[in-house]
Write a structure and sequence with these properties.
about 425 residues; alpha/beta; 16 helices; about 45% helix
């Protein structure tokens, strides 16, 4: 038995998969704590894990309704400044999350560049457990670049550049954290290269169904399958959801997770109009956008819900419309239902393109296009394509069958045991 600390930071999709990993390790006899933001304390404790707080909760950093991000280069610079400030604040919390008896660190992609310094200071092993591919490869461009291939040479070059950008984001946090831990100075780039040279295994929590392991990746970078968020074995959908499902044919799910904060009124009206035009029922998940049926009271075949496990809800849907975060993408595929991808930012266009290439999704609709005059017609057309074309459901069902044969959390457990934990 080992005391294991998992660190994860970001939105729900960046944190929830690690509750499944933690629960699996706990069932095997390990003591497991998950350090993350206060917003997810209940989620962590419900999975039977010890909760430890991390600062920089993104839910408290959401822009006010109607507050626009600057466009173009100014917008990118603003995002970089926000990310660097988030990471710097996070660094102080990482130092406090580990206790003297911590024997192993499991690190998400966001926390790994900080956690490596903590492992060095404490003299304990660690495993990186990212949810997205990050190492350069000729197979595809960096996941945050929009999903468009630049050719094998261009993809690798862009991948190396993306690592240098990440080093810049972590530069201040690295300097402060190493000083706090009593470690000699080292740049974020030097620390990353040391971690790469150490040759420790990196286990990626996604499926080769969507992203086959690149052949040009170094040994030790493995794709092990998804880690599913924990939910109680006997959990059921709320009665109001069951009643709605029983009242008619399978509806379409629409939700944007942690995206589109403060844009709920417009998006709700848009979703209701598109569902009506496509002649399908719908379930809107409130999310950070605040979707609600309040803006479409005349639409009887529409229901608004809060947080409901996708594993319980998605298999009951005719199709799912979402922003294509890594976790939601996998959940829709696991359910065997077609997707209408509406990617917003970061890695979401990458996952949207992967779903479409698999045949399990319609062509992506960039979120920005939902502001155009033809947005209702375009979304309605995609809903019809997703629900009426049997080929898409067939591809999704076949992908679900393959996903069901994988055991991502079990692979993490094996790696932990190989470390002697």
């Amino acid at each position: 038995m080992t005391n294991i600390l998992i660190t994860a930071a970001g939105s729900y999709g960046d944190v929830a998969p690690y509750t499944g990993v933690g629960a699996r390790l706990r069932a095997a006899g390990h003591e497991v704590a998950l350090a993350t933001h206060d917003s997810y304390a209940g989620l962590v404790r419900a999975a039977g894990l010890e909760f430890r707080p991390l600062p920089a909760d993104p839910r408290t950093r959401r822009p006010a309704a109607g507050q626009a991000q600057p466009a173009g280069p100014a917008g990118k610079r603003a995002l970089m400044r926000q990310a660097a400030a988030f990471i710097k604040e996070l660094g102080g919390g990482i130092a406090e999350a580990a206790h003297a008896d911590t024997g192993l660190l499991l690190l998400s992609a966001t926390t790994a560049p900080l956690g490596h310094h903590l492992a060095e200071a404490m003299g304990i092993p660690y495993l990186d457990l990212p949810l997205v591919p990050g190492a350069p490869t000729g197979d595809f461009a960096p996941v945050v670049s929009g999903g468009r291939s630049l050719g094998r040479w261009g993809n690798r070059a862009a991948g190396r550049l993306s690592l240098r950008i990440i080093d810049r984001l972590y530069a201040d946090a690295t300097r402060d954290l190493r000083a706090r831990l009593g470690l000699p100075p080292a740049t974020a780039r030097t620390a990353r290269r040391r971690a790469e040279a150490a040759g420790r295994p990196v286990l990626h929590g996604f499926s080769e169904v969507l992203v086959p392991r690149p052949a040009d990746w170094p040994t030790g970078l493995d794709v092990v399958g998804n880690w599913w968020p924990w939910h109680a074995p006997g959990a059921q959908l709320p009665p109001v959801v069951e009643d709605f499902l029983a009242a008619g044919p399978p509806p379409v799910f629409i939700g944007f997770g942690s995206m589109a904060g403060g844009d709920g009124e417009r998006l709700s009206a848009l979703a209701a109009a598109a569902l009506r035009r496509a002649k399908v029922r719908g379930i809107l998940q409130s999310g950070w956008a605040g979707l609600t049926t309040r803006h479409a009271p005349e639409h009887a075949d529409l229901l608004t819900i809060g947080d409901v496990p996708h594993a319980l809800l998605f298999p009951r849907m005719a199709a799912v419309v979402h922003h294509c975060g890594a976790g939601t993408t996998a959940a829709g595929l696991r359910a065997g239902v077609p997707t209408v991808p509406v990617p917003v930012t970061a890695d979401q266009p990458f996952w949207a393109a992967r779903l479409a290439s698999l045949g399990a999704a319609t062509a992506p609709i960039p979120f920005a296009d939902l502001s155009a005059g033809h947005a209702v017609a375009r979304l309605a057309h995609a809903l019809t394509q997703a629900t009426a074309a049997p080929d898409r459901r067939h591809h999704a069902t076949e992908a679900a069958r393959r996903l069901a044969a994988e055991d991502g959390a079990g692979q993490v457990l094996k790696a932990v045991e190989c470390l002697g934990a």
